[in-house]
Amino acid sequence: MIMRRLLATLIAGVVVCASTVALPAQAAAQEPREHKGEINGARYRVEVPKRWNGTLVLYSHGYIPDGFTVGQVQLSNNDETREWLLDHGYALAASEYQNKGVGYLIKEAMRDQLALLDWFNANVGKPRRTVLSGQSLGGSIATLLAERYPNRFDGALNLCAVYDPLNTFNTALDINFAVRTLLAPGEDIDLVNSRDPKAGRAALHDAINRTRETRQGQARLALAAALGNVTGWFHPHEPKPTDPAGWIRRQSDWVQWAKVDGNGTVAFADIAQRAGGNPLSNVGVNYTGQLARSGQRAAVERAYRKAGLDLRADLARLAAAPRIASERDALRHMYRYGVPTGGTRVPIVGLHTTGDAGAPPDQGRWYADQVRRNGHPDRLRQFYVERGGHCSFNAAEELTAFRALLTRIDTGHWPRHTDPRRLNAEANRFDPRFHLVAAYGESKKTMAPAFTRYSPPLTSRPSR
């Protein structure tokens, strides 16, 4: 049950670890005006500081799996980020979306966020500039809004963004397919069009739990993880694992809690219901080639040798297993509501941790490729933070990226220096309370800003 609770932060993009920071007594008179309500059944929350500077930050939360709920509508990834923005005159707004924000709601989220912006214009005032911010799957929402409504938005800050949701869920399909084929052979587990998605999820959990302590199970979990560029850096407060056994153990955590529990059979069923059919497919996928492209083949081969298993035989089992085909109309729906073109018409900044496997940093590389083909590369900047976990930034890192975006919006040029050394120097100017990093179910920990140079691997299942 503890790990199920962690999933809300791992995948949903919901900041369950953040709590509201009480303002000091002398600041009580400066507390922002708060507006709450519903628009067409979607809850919203707006905060406007006493001295509003004319900028609105519209925040899009991430994917919330079935069975998870949150309290009030979140306005930021970190509460310290929210506090700083309000203290410096920025207004904040966010919709929870329809269905209490639960499920694959990109179509609904775009509509609800635009409706909230209309409400803000009519009831608070028209912003001088409106900046999008999106976390996890919310990064896809923010990107699509920026691409399709450039007359309404001035820029976007994407945190741990799932730029290509179709890729994300096809990759999850690959991993679930490998777990079923290699760890639960012969079991009747429907991955899509399932009669009981929750039972399928439970069966895959059982398969992982009964095999993960064996060398054979660890080797096969390493293979499944490699198919989706899953790292072994699970915990943001821990250093990157250096021993192979520890790396695989943490990979198996990502596989179990992010790819099976969060993005597995229950999520597949939800997406199919919203898309009018199954949009996911592994028809024609060459898993041998996918392993080679992952950059993890040597580690997987080492695990297989240690376990006394034949890697080629397991790859042959994957190749021979019956495949899953998508339905044409459902696939079209996913492209319309989930796959951006890269047609950047406003500036976008992406921020990603290098150890993220909830939304691997290869997503940023994929989006940069789309921008080079279809957009304006000078309108995109991607920054990386050397840390494990999903969306595990501190507020100083987020605000440093935000200020770089504002410079580009206001001047038409990026800051002169955006190398990691300069970014870390900028982030270190913030008070230490803005250096807190949340971890799942634990107290926040002060961690120094960790911007770094990083080249992500190629994404395993690009949609374009």
UniProtKB/TrEMBL annotation:
<protein>
    <submittedName>
        <fullName>Putative esterase</fullName>
    </submittedName>
</protein>
<feature type="signal peptide">
    <location>
        <begin position="1"/>
        <end position="27"/>
    </location>
</feature>
<dbReference type="InterPro" id="IPR029058">
    <property type="entry name" value="AB_hydrolase_fold"/>
</dbReference>
<keyword id="KW-0732">Signal</keyword>
<feature type="domain" description="DUF6351">
    <location>
        <begin position="46"/>
        <end position="356"/>
    </location>
</feature>
<dbReference type="InterPro" id="IPR045556">
    <property type="entry name" value="DUF6351"/>
</dbReference>
<dbReference type="Pfam" id="PF19878">
    <property type="entry name" value="DUF6351"/>
</dbReference>
